[in-house]
Amino acid sequence: MSGLADHSARSPALGDAVLNALPNALLLIAPDGKIVDANMAAESFFETSISHLKRQSLKELVPFGSPVLELIEQVRRVGAPVNEYKVDLGTPRIGVDKLVDLHVAPVPEQPGHIVVMVQERTIADKMDRQLTHRSAARSVTALAAMLAHEIKNPLSGIRGAAQLLEQAASPEDRTLTRLICDEADRIVTLVDRMEVFGDERPVQRGPVNIHSVLGHVKRLAQSGFARNVRFVEDYDPSLPPVLANQDQLIQVFLNLVKNAAEATADIDDPEIVLTTAFRPGVRLSIPGQATRVSLPLEFCVKDNGPGVPDDLMPNLFDPFITTKLTGSGLGLALVAKIVGDHGGIIECESQPRKTVFRVLLPMFNPTRKASDASDADPGTASQHVRMRDED
Predict the structure, then answer these.
(1) Dist. CA 1–CA 20, nearest whole Å
(2) Are the CB atoms for 370 and 323 separated by under 8 Å?
């Protein structure tokens, strides 16, 4: 992006390197609205190459009537920088929910040219929403404890009475007593699944190879509920270990992959994409910790299903929220709790043919104290957590 750096004593190559190192998308706009240059972050944001960006005008990339076009004209008129916050640049190609902050400024050395910096708000918004997800998961804790005590005990008595009645019942009545027993068992199973929300024991964590976890989840899925789904893996092979509990990570991604498989069940070309990447610069303040925690590891489960209904998106990780006729709506709430217990973030972005569940987690730091990251075998440290792959 040498056009932004020629005025300095530095070489154009150095200027390009500096601009490409920035995490925010930068665009250089010519007087006719064409994109003259862009950095690598712009490639990532608009999901296209720099060479393709240079063949387009800005109005072809942003929504019709976008405020960014008016901001550019305003900067040309007044000759001074202008900022605009919470602007939606979402399009069907890059995602329908792309809230950004815009910083638009003139380039004095190149009259008529404008620099546009695009700063995504998603990370800050995710942090706020993640705290809401954690609160939603914790809100089930008291309910789970109450159900375990107040419902399971009476149910055992009801089931026992039905079994006694069954011994002397007619064949027609045995159908009803069997129905009572089956429904009692179903309620007990539901309560058992909710009891995990009341488990407040510290999570035993250690170094975990995320690719081993995803490989295990993929094998489980392909041997069962996702045998007809095409899997695509886009992994960063140099990724460091994640600080986590292996059993619980398997539980998280098994739930997410099962949701993705069920979302693509009725389409002709079902596909699930698993990705891993290193995203430096993401830091989060965790309640109870004095220092900010870095969350550089990004793991995504993507599917090409019809997408999540708009009315469910704000409460997607709340308990009992589901689109399935037979679902309990506890799967994603449990996922949110586990990710929150690991000090991470989970977020969903959805549109037709492109739904992404993104998990951000801390990496394992071997210099941390043993009290911060248990050296116990992560594969056996959480035997109290039972594997669940239902929603």
Answers:
(1) 8
(2) no
Neighbours of 118 (CB within 10 A): 22
Looking at the chain, how many residues does it have? 391
- Which residues have a Cβ under 8 Å from the Cβ of 284 and sit 6 or more positions away? 127, 130, 292, 293, 295, 343, 345
Residue 68: other Cβ atoms inside 10 A: 21
In a domain, 385, yes or no: no
Q: Could you give the C-alpha distances from 386 to 107, 138, 192, 359, in angstroms and in order?
A: 60, 19, 10, 21
Q: Name the pairing type of β-strands 230-234 and 271-278.
A: parallel
How far is Cα 300 from Cα 279, in angstroms, rounded to an integer? Answer: 12
C-alpha distances out from residue 377 to 6, 369, 382, Å: 55, 16, 9
Q: How many folded domains does the chain comprise? A: 3
CATH number of the domain encompassing residue 69: 3.30.450.20
User: Is 225 in the same domain as 95?
Assistant: no
Q: Which residues contact 116 (CB under 8 A, 6 or more apart)?
A: 26, 27, 29, 58, 68, 72, 102, 103, 104
Task: Tell me the torsion sign for CA atoms 322, 389, 130, 40.
Answer: negative
Claim to verify: residue 171 and residue 230 sit in the same structural domain: no
Same domain, 224 and 355: yes
Summarised one tens digit per residue, pLDDT across range 37-56 is 998 888 888 888 888 888 88
Same domain, 229 and 319: yes
Segment 113-152, tens digit of pLDDT:
999 998 876 555 555 555 555 555 555 555 565 556 567 6
* Residues 9 and 111 both lie in one domain: yes
| CA atoms within a 13 Å half-sphere pointing along the CA-CB vector of 347 | 17
Q: Residue 6: which of 24, 19, 22, 25 has the closest Cα?
A: 19
Q: 16 or 73: whose pLDDT is higher?
A: 73
Q: Structure pTM?
A: 0.54
For residues 183 and 274, state if they share a domain: no
Print the domain residue range for 161.
Answer: 124-197
Residues 193 and 302 in one domain: no
* CATH number of residue 315's parent domain: 3.30.565.10
Q: What is the rounded CA–CA span in Å between residue 102 and residue 120?
A: 9
